[in-house]
Amino acid sequence: MSEALAGKAAALDAADELAPHRALFALDDGVVYLDGNSLGALPRHVPARMQDVIAREWGELRIRSWEESGWWTAPERIGDRIAPLIGADRGTVVVGDSTSVNVFKALVGAVRLADEDRDEILVDASTFPTDGYVADSAARMTGRRLRALAPADIPAALGPRTAAVLVNHVDYRSGRLNDLPAMTAAIQEAGALAVWDLCHSAGALPVGLGTHGVDFAVGCTYKYLNGGPGSPAYLYVRGDHQARFDTPLPGWNSHEDPFGMRSAYAPGDGAVRGRVGTPDILSMLALESALDVWDGVSIEAVRAKSLALTDFFLECVEAYVPAGRVSSVTPAAHAERGSQVSLRCEKADEVMRALTERGVVGDHRRPDVLRFGFTPLYVGFADAERAAGELAALLG
Ligand SMILES: *Cc1c(COP(=O)(O)O)cnc(C)c1O
Q1: What does the pLDDT look like over 368-384, one tens digit per residue?
Q2: Which residue has its alpha carbon closest to ligand 1 atom 3?
Q3: Do 194 and 158 form a contact (C-beta atoms < 8 A)?
Q4: 131 lines ligand 1 (CB under 6 A)
């Protein structure tokens, strides 16, 4: 489309230290995959590992694998692999269940740690719907009132009535990054607990759960962490809350002596308290294997590339797409941007279908938003330039 931008893309790709990571993924060269914020791409080595898990660990060792293949301890072990990616200490993250289920555990757990007389739960009004539904149920169960507010209005609404606040770190629709350090500090200043949903930030940018003293957090692993469709989510409970974390789903897996088969519940110590029932081992081990692509990767480098990619994509869109056909709903300021670009566009569904046919895969959110997710481990600058060019060709 433009020699200058194509040349700039080539130069940026040549200087990109993360570029070699692309070869770790099963991606066909003709396709620009910008939907890793919905379903991360497959790391090439995972199928062989799963073949071994299924044929040997399950097929040959069978029941012995709970011990010998480390199945039983997988939720904590894999939690410890995710912990550094979100700035959490060892022993504070456990993997299992879906994000929706973990939102429930975290939010009810947070409310149960708050003072009895605090009768409100606040939720980010633009939240991914499941978080809002779960928050509503959690509020009814714990006898609290739920208030949905725009993230910008949350600080002013905090007060002696606030028990807990549930916020999405990055908004799934607009790609807006909420200010986790400042909002966590404000929530705690008001005496309430902060629960963060990291679905669209973990694996895309530094989260710093420990540094910022976040109380609880949850997130999924099939987006930027490439764990595979429906791979289990994770729950973070700050170390000093663990002993008082009163889970609303006390299954036998979180018992201090699961095989004691006792009728009275007594919670185990540490991250294990976030477990419920038998872990989904196949998905969990696919996730564990997929996490190998993060070995030696600095999340700061990922963030730097992510911002450079989204900046460059916006620059190409501006240069290529006829004026007025799209407008970005993603904040221009780096401090407010996640790792996706959302463009408002008429007939977004038809446009995305046609774009996909041209080999540029993103997605759309009704009614009029095109979403382009930039996953720095396997998307490059030439991909961003090509995506903008194909979009312009469609809209021109
Ligand atoms: C993707 C996403 C979810 C998904 O929840 P599941 O239980 O895995 O279906 C939840 N919350 C947010 C913010 C998300 O982006």
Answers
A1: 999 999 999 999 999 99
A2: 99
A3: no
A4: yes
Active site residue 105: no
Å from CA of 100 to ligand 1 middle: 6
What pLDDT sits at residue 29?
87
- For tokens 């530094």, the residue is 206
Give the position of tokens 């941007």.
337
State if residue 130 touches ligand 1 by the CB under 6 angstroms criterion: yes
Q: Which of ligand 1's atoms lies nearest the C-alpha of 98?
A: 7
Atom number, ligand 1, closest to the C-alpha of residue 220 = 8
CA atoms lying within 13 Å on the CB side of residue 125: 8
Ligand 1, atom 6, residue with closest C-alpha: 99
The position carrying tokens 């962490």 is 225
**249-290 pLDDT per residue, tens:** 999 999 999 999 999 999 999 999 999 999 999 999 999 999
What pTM does this model have? 0.98
Q: Which residue, among 140, 211, 126, has the nearest Cα to 169 in the 3D structure?
A: 126
How many Å apart are CA 251 and CA 256, to the nearest integer?
A: 11
Round to whole Å and give the CA distance between 363 and 348. 9
Q: Quick one: CA torsion of 394, 359, 330, 209, rounded to 10 degrees? A: 180
* pLDDT tens-digit series, residues 77-95: 999 999 999 999 999 999 9
Residues in the chain: 396
Whether 349 is catalytic is: no
Residue keyed to tokens 């006829």? 322
Which 3-state string (H, E, C) describes the chain?
A: CCHHHHHHHHHHHHHCCCHHHHHHECCCCCCEECCCCCCCCCECCHHHHHHHHHHHHHCCCHHHHHHHCCCCCHHHHHHHHHHHHHCCCCCCEEECCCHHHHHHHHHHHHHHHCCCCCCEEEEECCCCHHHHHHHHHHHHHHCCEEEEECHHHHHHHCCCCEEEEEEECECCCCCEECCHHHHHHHHHHCCCEEEEECCCCCCCCCCCCCCCCCCEEEECCCCCCCCCCCCCCEEEECHHHHHHCCCCCCCHHHECCHHHCCCCCCECCHHHHHCCCCCCHHHHHHHHHHHHHHCCCCHHHHHHHHHHHHHHHHHHHHHHCCCCCEEECCCCCHHHECCEEEEEECCHHHHHHHHHHCCEECEEECCCEEEEECCCCCCCHHHHHHHHHHHHHHHC
